[in-house]
Amino acid sequence: MNRGIAFVFIFIAVASILMFTSTDVITLFANQHAFISISGTGNQISCTGCHHHIADELNHSAIHDDLNCEACHRFTGTGITFASGDGTGSTPGNESHAAYTPRCLDCHGGRGVWVVNKTGSSVHAPPAPAFNETGYGSNVSAHKPLVKQALDYNLSVGENEACLACHTNYSIKFGFRRPGYFNFTWNKGSGDSGSFTLSNIGYGPTNSTTVSKSESGAKHEFKAINQIKCEDCHSDIWHAANHSESNGHGSTRASHVCWKWYKSGSGGGGGHGGDDPMHNVTCVYSEYGISNCPNDCYDNITEYCMLSCHKPRINPSATIPPVFLETAHAAYRLSCYHCHNNTAYSNAFWSIPRGQYDTPEFEHSGGHDTIDDEALSEPLFLQAETCISCKRSGDRWGDGTYKAYTEPNNTMLYEGSPI
Ligand code: HEC
Ligand code: HEC
Ligand code: HEC
Ligand code: HEC
Ligand code: HEC
Ligand code: HEC
């Protein structure tokens, strides 16, 4: 496990979940006094008579619309006995009467389960990657803290708040807490391969950013997986990354990630003078259209977040950075160093705009060793800022004191001056 990772919990936390859907039982009185024979096999009480709004939501879902209410609310896989009037006599329920509230992981944990759908076929509920493992998988799965924290909220059972937040039109509000800024000093020895050191690391007072994911609020409206949008909950991050304007030093004002770096002497040409599509926000088609993109584009912001960094496609025949050998749900928690710090990771990542496996450049075998050791013992946030500050300061590249404000802010100072 990476040394920097554990620190991150101190700096990011989900402070609050404020809004949620209300359950519709508006037609409650319609069936309340109806007497229904329950002696046939299965459940004869129509759930939708009272809960018809929920049936509507499910019918508008991309997932689970083939399941009836009972498949989930009378799911037998957890050992609960439901009340039943099958045949003569009756079975009283145990732990629950006619219905229970399932955890998503009742079906999507372990190896998944088989469920009978509306047409009588057995369908497989696939396991939720990483979250189906003991302890919800490793710490490189970016949303493990979200799932663990959900256990402490009382809006839903178990981990459900976390699953609902991404997979449904549930509305939710997050408060992200981070240090308002970082400051640090680089000292570089002689030349490219000198002994780099990082010192005077400081963290500003905590800053809170609230992000609202406001949708219809419907918990039973399940999204197709490709409708889940990173920027719904991380609009602050996208705001910080999406600054394509020049900073006057050959780079851009973007923070969180950077893709453009003009090292002294190489101008717009060779060496590290690139404007590489791999992390380039102007290659996001939904935001910038096709004209700015060298080859193919990332279709949208989510594809950019994932393929450019948090879930890249990796050449199976390459030496794979250890972080990617772990299972992650939706996104990996990592920093620039995980990919750019080792010459062995050659041809490892699939970059959509280039349409070929690409080598992460400027791996430093030797020269940056000292710096990397010190940076890697810091939280991921600071690790990334050390790379970004150097690239953003253009041909000065390196030496000096920086102050980097965190997302959604985009200000970075070099020796007190904005860069
Ligand atoms: C006669 C009307 C009626 C019928 C039929 C009915 N429900 Fe309900 N159900 C209610 C009411 C009323 C509530 C309480 C709503 C509330 O607290 O907001 C409720 C609550 C629930 C809850 C929430 C329980 C909780 O702990 O919060 C679930 C789950 C549920 N029903 C599922 C079902 C399922 C599944 C069926 C079919 C087997 C069904 N209901 C049939 C009226 C009904
Ligand atoms: C794919 C599984 C699934 C299906 C199918 C499903 N539900 Fe649910 N339902 C859930 C889960 C999970 C929750 C708990 C949500 C939470 O944890 O807040 C829930 C919650 C509820 C609640 C409690 C109120 C609320 O909003 O939390 C009611 C009532 C309910 N379901 C009724 C129904 C009815 C009626 C149907 C059929 C039209 C249905 N459900 C179909 C999984 C399902
Ligand atoms: C009773 C078991 C059951 C419960 C509870 C349940 N699911 Fe499912 N889920 C299924 C089944 C079965 C499928 C397979 C698709 C189908 O036929 O509906 C599925 C499919 C999915 C898929 C699509 C997987 C894919 O690869 O396309 C997602 C995502 C999903 N469920 C998320 C959830 C979430 C989130 C919850 C909780 C709110 C939940 N499920 C609760 C049974 C369940
Ligand atoms: C429903 C809201 C939601 C969506 C959608 C979402 N995230 Fe997150 N994400 C969160 C929350 C909340 C946290 C903070 C968890 C914690 O550490 O407390 C988080 C944490 C992270 C982290 C870890 C940050 C750190 O330093 O620990 C990464 C990386 C991340 N998300 C990437 C993504 C990517 C990429 C996507 C799109 C595939 C995405 N997220 C979609 C809510 C969301
Ligand atoms: C940060 C958003 C986010 C959270 C939180 C989240 N998911 Fe997902 N989930 C995704 C995305 C994106 C995918 C598709 C990419 C992937 O598989 O990583 C996915 C995929 C899935 C799949 C399909 C797996 C397959 O192999 O087809 C299931 C099932 C699932 N999630 C269930 C869950 C459950 C259960 C929870 C809660 C314990 C949960 N998810 C929490 C975003 C999320
Ligand atoms: C998933 C692995 C991965 C991560 C994480 C990653 N990169 Fe990259 N990066 C790449 C690849 C692959 C390229 C493409 C290099 C090429 O085209 O030759 C690249 C290209 C770049 C370039 C352009 C290089 C040039 O000379 O044009 C810069 C600058 C860059 N990355 C900076 C960063 C920074 C800063 C971070 C952290 C905020 C980061 N990268 C995180 C894989 C990664």
Name a few traits of the molecule.
disordered N terminus; elongated; 14 helices; about 425 residues; five-stranded antiparallel beta sheet; 12 strands; alpha+beta; three-stranded antiparallel beta sheet; binds heme C
Q: What is the overall number of helices?
A: 14
- What pattern of helices and strands is seen along the backbone? HHHHHEEHHEEEEHHHHEHEEHHEEE
Largest sheet: 5 strands, antiparallel
- Taking all Cα atoms into account, the compactness measure Rg is 26 Å
Mean pLDDT: 80
Instruction: Tell me the strand order in the biggest sheet.
Output: 5-4-10-11-12
Instruction: Tell me the span between the first and last alpha carbons.
Output: 34 Å
Q: What percent strand?
A: 5-15%
Q: Note poorly predicted spans.
A: 1-40, 91-95, 264-270
**Helical content (DSSP H or I, runs of 4+):** 10-25%
- What small ligands are held by the chains? heme C
**Helix/strand class:** alpha+beta
DSSP summary, beta strand count: 12
The shape is elongated
Q: Your description of this structure?
A:
This protein has helices spanning 8-11, 47-50, 52-59, 69-73, 104-108, 144-150, 160-167, 230-233, 235-241, 285-288, 301-310, 336-340, 369-376, 380-392, and strands spanning 113-116, 122-125, 172-179, 181-187, 197-203, 206-213, 313-314, 349-351, 356-358, 400-405, 412-414, 417-418. Helices cover 22% and strands 14% of the residues. The model is unreliable at 1-40, 91-95 and 264-270 (pLDDT under 50). The chain is of the alpha+beta class and 419 residues long. It has a 5-stranded antiparallel β-sheet with strand order 5-4-10-11-12, covered by helices on one side. A 3-stranded antiparallel β-sheet has the order 7-8-9, with no helix packed on it. The chain has a domain at 181-206 and 226-418. The chain is built from 14 helices and 12 strands. One heme C is lined by residues 21, 23, 47-48, 51, 54-55, 58, 64, 67, 69, 71-73, 101-102, 104, 156-157, 160, 219-220.
